[in-house]
Amino acid sequence: MMAELSTLWPVYLAYLLGTLSPGPSNLAIISVAMRQGRRPALALAAGVVSGSLCWAILAACGISTLLLAWSKALIAIKFI
After folding, report:
1. Is residue 63 within 8 Å of residue 70, measured between CB atoms?
2. Cβ distance 41 to 33 under 8 Å?
3. Phi, psi of 50, deg, nearest 5
4. 48: exposed, middle or buried (C-beta count within 10 Å: 0-12, 13-18, 19+)?
5. Based on CB atoms within 10 Å of each CB, which residue in 29, 56, 59, 74 is the most buried?
6. pLDDT category of residue 2 using cuts at 50, 70 and 90
7. Phi, psi values for residue 72, rounded to 5°
8. CA 15, 17, 19, 22: dihedral to nearest 10 degrees?
9. Which residue segment(s) compose the domain that 24 sits in?
10. What pLDDT, on the 0 to 100 scale, is given for residue 7?
11. Number of neighbouring beta carbons within 10 Å of residue 61
12. Predicted confidence band at 79 (pLDDT cuts at 50, 70, 90)?
């Protein structure tokens, strides 16, 4: 189990760096908050979160469909 955890640290670090860096959606939320206030910024943030959730669900469904159709794809996914 420890070997698996040690291999996940680079992935976690890359995820953390990507999360901490301000992307276009974060900059848009900051801009709206500064110009229009908290309520419109919260509405935009809720839209960004719901959009991200939809993309995550679609990606998970796509990967699961791929794995059901072609089980050898798991080897390719593990390799990547």
Report:
1. no
2. yes
3. -65, -35
4. middle
5. 29
6. low
7. -70, -10
8. -150
9. 2-79
10. 76
11. 10
12. confident
Tell me the longest C-alpha to C-alpha distance in the chain. Answer: 51
Measured in residues, the chain has a length of 80
Q: How far apart are CA 80 and CA 71, in angstroms?
A: 15
Domain total for the chain? Answer: 1
Close Cβ partners of 29 (under 8 Å, ≥ 6 residues apart): 41, 44, 45, 48
> Which two three-digit tokens encode residue 56?
């995550």
Convert the pLDDT of each residue in 12-43 to its tens digit.
Answer: 888 778 777 788 999 999 999 999 999 999 99
- CA atoms of 49 and 57, how far apart (whole Å): 12
Convert the pLDDT of each residue in 29-78 to its tens digit.
Answer: 999 999 999 999 999 999 999 998 999 999 999 888 888 888 887 888 77
